[in-house]
Design goal:
single chain, 133 residues, mainly alpha, 3-stranded antiparallel sheet, 43% helix, 10% strand
Length: 133
Amino acid sequence: MAVYQDLVRRMDQRGVRILAGTDTPFAYCLPGFALQQELALLVEAGLSPIAALRAATWNPAEFLHVTQDYGSIDPGKVADLVVLDADPLIAVRNTTRIRAVFRRGHLIDENALQSMLERVRTEVGKSEGITAH
């Protein structure tokens, strides 16, 4: 792991554009959760929190040539947002402190979010032979 972290740190220092994102559909790689872990690992490797967040937002949009719609919060762009209870620039693990989610400008309420999480717990539990709590 240290070798990979050193490689990522050196690549970042040399201006290599880092893209964050999950490699699903692989077992135990859950979108969202895996991205939060990846951001923390990028910071552990030496990226600043803002660089890690950029690796999950602006950089992929730029790489995919979709910055007109994605990658930043601007009028007219697709409003996919995660609102947090704490500043991820202070600690990137604050990305786990989700207050609200907007998908294409529509709020996904807390009950719907909890229902989604419960379905994930249930499915993971099925694959591991355990029951969700």
